[in-house]
Amino acid sequence: MNHDSLQATAKALIAEGKGILAADETVGTITKRFESLKINSTENSRCAYREMLFTSPGVSEFISGVIMYDETIRQTNARGVPLPEVCTRLGIIPGIKVDTGAKDLAGSPGEKITEGLDGLRDRLTAYYNMGARFAKWRAVIQISDRHPSQTCLAVNAHALGRYAALCQEQGLVPIVEPEVLMDGPHSIERCGEITGHVLHTVFNALYAQGVSLEGMLLKPNMVVSGKECTKQASVQKVAQATLQCLCRHVPAAVPGIVFLSGGQHDRLATAHLNAINILPSPKPWKISFSYGRALQDAALEAWHGDNNNIKAGQQALYQRAKCNGAASLGKYTEEMEGNASRKRMPAHRADWHDD
Questions:
Q1: Which element (helix H / strand E) includes 52?
Q2: Rounded distance, CA 61 to CA 174, Å?
Q3: Contacts of residue 315, Cβ cutoff 8 Å, sequence gap at least 6
Q4: Which of 180, 199, 211, 355 lies at 20 to 30 Å from 250 by C-alpha?
Q5: Which of 141, 321, 105 is nearest to 226 (CA)?
């Protein structure tokens, strides 16, 4: 393990005013997105879409890294240049999703365990040789009257710790993503309670498995009301509850926290990030973003599967990246959205989740 290299990469990923583009949807997930817009999902169309995103002019001003899926990291552009190299040339650090998805947890109906540890060391070596310098593993935690169980928390935390240790051994910065899902009618207070319990359990596992906190990033959910909760918390309350939870449970040695959007509408995710960053409370870590849908949705809709719309898709991504870059500095305003800010937007996206 090269601690200096890991720390340098982690710091580069949370450079001032920058965040991470999560473009690591599985084939099944991105196909659902394409089909919702009547776009034909093929290996070529998926490659064209990802290349459009990665090569958006000026986007590296606000995007430090991009998380790819296995299919994507093996693809090339029209000139035969591997997509990781395309990103590197543009000053964007390539990353890779390495878990194989959340599966039913035996003996605990309604809960999930993320799989993918088998053969991970060899896969990490191969991904590093393809150009990846960081990785991501996502655990999903469901809130209900009975969930999460201690078993669910323990096994997912252990897997995150094992994954993170293997990443650092192979020279990749691990992004540790324990996501408490927004699904359900739970209150923001219940979300805060469970999120705190999850983070406490995860960092115990990371410590137990010798993970260098300085060479990793945390990708948590924000503390929000459940999607079906009749009383949705305000932006200010979300910011306060989220920062309080982080201060209680995330060690100061962690260099950065890059939030997932988790189904929030793109502009709401931006507003929440900005509100967290402008709070006067001390923040020992950089706080930024690692958004998927909250960065991609406008770009996908503008592109719509037609290469004649590449410029429009890239402009849409640039706009969202610019707004989130400003939010990571606490400098976002609704005026930055232009005419779009006058439109009323829903709080949440559809019910399917990023992988």
A1: helix 43-54
A2: 23
A3: 56, 302
A4: 355
A5: 141
Q: What is the pTM of this model?
A: 0.94
| Contacting residues for 118 by C-beta, under 8 A, at least 6 apart | none
Amino acid identity at 273: L
Q: For 228-280, what is each residue's pLDDT tens digit?
A: 999 999 999 999 999 999 999 999 999 999 999 988 999 999 999 999 999 99
**DSSP, residue by residue, 77-124:** -TTS-BHHHHHHHTT-EEEEE----EEEPTTSTT-EEE---TTHHHHH
- Output the CA angle 78-81-87, nearest 5 degrees: 110
Q: Output the CA–CA distances (angstroms, integers) from residue 110 to 105, 113, 152, 313, in the order listed.
A: 8, 11, 10, 38
Instruction: From residue 53, give the alpha-carbon distance in Å to each of 17, 172, 279.
Output: 19, 23, 32
- What is the reported pLDDT for 339? 60
Residue 41 identity: S
Alpha carbons 291 and 299: distance in angstroms, whole number: 13
The 10s digit of each residue's pLDDT in 18-63 is 999 999 999 999 999 999 999 999 999 999 999 999 999 999 999 9
3-state DSSP assignment of residue 7: helix
Amino acid at 142: Q
First-to-final CA distance of the chain: 28
Please name every residue paired with 65 in a beta bridge, in sequence order, or none if there are none.
Answer: 20, 93
Q: Which domains does the chain have, with CATH numbers?
A: 3-342 (3.20.20.70)
SS3 228: coil
User: Would you state the pLDDT for residue 78?
Assistant: 87
Q: What is the mean pLDDT of residues 85-111?
A: 96
Catalytic positions, written as ranges = 177, 219
With b for 16 or more beta-carbon neighbours within 10 A and e for fewer, the 145-165 pattern comes to eebbbeebbebbbbbbbbbbb
